[in-house]
Amino acid sequence: MADSSANEQEISVGPLKKTSVGVPAIASSMRYAYEEMGTRRSLQTLLKMNHVDGFDCPSCAWPDPDPEHRKTAEFCENGAKAVAWEATRKRVDAAFFAEHSIADLRSQDDHWLEHHGRLTEPMYLAPGATHYAPISWDDAIALVADRLRGLPDPNRAVFYTSGRASNEAAFVYQLLARRLGTNNLPDCSNMCHESSGAALSETIGVGKGVVTLDDLEHHAELIVIVGQNPGTNHPRMLTALEHAKRRGARIVAINPLPEAGFGRFRNPQTPRGLAGTGTVLADSYLPVRVNGDLALFAAVNKALLAREDDHPGSTLDRDFIERYCDGFDAAAQGWRDLDWDVLTAQAGLSRRQIEDLASAVTEAGSVIVCWAMGLTQHRNAVATIREIVNFLLLRGNIGRPGAGPSPIRGHSNVQGDRTMGIWEKMPDAFLDALRDEFGFDPPRQHGWDTVDTIRALRDHRVDVFFALGGNFVSATPDTELTEASMANCALTVHVATKLNRSHLCHGTEALLLPCLGRTERDVQAAGEQFVTVEDSMSMVHASSGRLAPGSDGLRSEIAIVTALGHALFGDDVGWRQMGADYRVIRKHIEHVVPGFQAFEERVAQPGGFMLPRGPHDSRTFKTATGKARFTVNPPTTVEVPEGHLLLQTVRSHDQFNTTVYGLDDRYRGIKGGRRVVFVNADDLRDRALADGDLVDVVSVAPDGERRAKAFRAVAYPTPRGCVAAYFPEANVLVPIDSVAEVSNTPASKSVVVRLERAG
Ligand code: SF4
After folding, report:
1. Omega before 728 cis (within 30°)?
2. Domain-wise residue ranges, the chain
């Protein structure tokens, strides 16, 4: 990972903010938009974003309000940056690649690489070559088809997906991989909400959230936000929280870091936000220890049970538990056996704080729990999310307005991709439907997720690595291992809009296939096309670009995948028809994917349609027992040896996943650089270090140590023993084998490290 050290970066540190959005967000949005797109293009794009006749924001997956409630500017600062980043006027063309060798480009960081603009035509890196060079589309597709056809085993190919792929692109992509004969379909969900999917599928029978924007805005009486930083990662959520707060809901924020998004929200769409005092969102903030969430929710559940034991019928929804749940008695005994001192120490919170949360729960008629990576990227993540389900089931907080679990997705269509079949272990029901629809028998052997793919790359078990978007080597853990392992491939292929580090960590030969962005018109043989996406709350809606394609050399993701399908298999399943007219794809989706009946008609409705959510709609729980399941999750935390600390990786405010828009993190007071580590001042003092010192961060794991050099230490109000640093810079510290139980998600939020003065 090329990255200028903190030395070279002019990093300055100011006070952290307690106020979010406001005029600074408008200024920042406009600056990015103007610098990348200019005035006319900015207006063309931003005023169509998240509108019924426009395109879906290519950034996070926060749902849109009902069409009649959308604002003219229906986007946030980070949505504006994402669109500016994609619709930039800058280009990375053949001349750029002629000027810059692979070696030269590898010495640059991701911000520099992506900052140079959009790819313009297919590029090929021949074996032994030092520079990418142009190749025609026909030759590129033929080359990939030839290499795939030549594989001794289809399982020596991997098809990676980033969450930006539309439903239609994801559907034909999984069809291609399965038609070839493999389920090697790792995706970015493996690194984000896989733990949520595993826990929710087991306990309530569906692997995603079940609440709606209406539940949160208009019905929830208590909203618990845990392991999530909405101010940066889902900014329009702040508007929904403000609506809820002004309606009388209470909000509790649980996070090791005191994020600005929990403080005073200055909604730029309201006079109160622009010129007035704004709205303080969180009623209470609990600075839980990193990885202390399981202990916290077990403790709250213990407190709720104790109140019920003291006054039977006073606290728990007995009727709901008896009618819709199983496993309560074992769970209850588990809580009774827990020790308060152990729980408070593991959570890093006082008994008082925990009892206050329990009181807030008992005073609320309906409770929603929202979460993100702060919960899912730990060894015990699945157990923590199961314990949160226990927390909701105790008072029947599922299956009625304003209540339920709500994992908030970080990428615009990551949930839709999974619904479309992008998963290495799709159930037989889906594969049977695929067989019946297309007349071939899909492979049944489960494939590799992201971590297993890296292991397979390391062990020379992958010949062809194909990525539909994303930045695999920067998004994944154990950076040095992952980057080196990519070279073990015979061919690496990236479908992308912009140049990034993964394109430079290549196989013996490599291809870069530039695709249309979400903001661009997509015209195929049957005319102008639209695609569909699914947001965090299971709303499926249309998205159609408004800009002319950035260059003639671009193709849509669907056109690329269907052309490859045709090159490999002729027109056996109708690749050409699907590439020419996306309605054909949607008709297939209607036949294969549950919940998409009358797809074309329903998605034509303004705002689209909601997918079925059994637990919410009818308290139907398609679990192994047909009931919502209480589970026993003995609280655990990561053992931190003496002198060590627990690191969590985080995003800055100028970042979306691995895309780095800029080097500032306005809310945390950071300017001009990213190699910073946030440390509690007392932890610095105990190590004879001070704010501003340069340190190496060293992670320790059973298979050895990993070092991230020259980070500027920043004294920060994080709990004792807990530190934070940005990814992808800190991903080098995350061992490949440090993963969540059950979900195999990299444990990027709890890495044991020590700080050493940089030498
Ligand atoms: S909240 Fe998310 S989806 Fe909405 S505009 Fe912002 S980044 Fe885009």
Report:
1. yes
2. 91-189+419-611, 194-408, 645-757
Note the pLDDT tens digit of each residue in 202-224. Answer: 999 999 999 999 999 999 999 99
Rg (CA), the chain: 25
Fold of 194-408: Dimethylsulfoxide Reductase; domain 2 (3.40.228)
CA of 74 to the centre of ligand 1 (A): 9
Residue 5, pLDDT score: 52
C-alpha 657 – ligand 1 centre gap (Å) = 13
For residue 104, give both structure tokens.
């030269």
For the segment 465-510, what is each residue's pLDDT rounded down to a tens digit? 999 999 999 999 999 999 999 999 999 999 999 999 999 999 999 9
Cα(627) to centroid of ligand 1, in Å?
A: 35
State the pLDDT at residue 759. Answer: 81
DSSP state of 531: E
Residue-wise pLDDT tens digits, 629-659: 999 999 999 999 999 999 999 999 999 999 9
Please determine, for residue 283, whether its predicted confidence score (pLDDT) is greater than 70.
yes
Pocket of ligand 1 (CB under 6 A): 57, 59-60, 62, 75-76, 78-79, 234-236
Q: CATH second-level architecture of 645-757? A: Beta Barrel (2.40)
d(CA 544, CA 416): 16
DSSP letter (8 states) at residue 547: B
The residue contributing the CA closest to ligand 1 atom 2 is 60
| Residue among 55, 57, 74 whose CB has most ligand 1 atoms within 8 A, to mutate | 57
Which ligand 1 atom minimizes the distance to the CA of 58? Answer: 8
d(C-alpha 309, C-alpha 647), whole Å: 38
Query: 91-189+419-611, which class in CATH?
Result: alpha beta
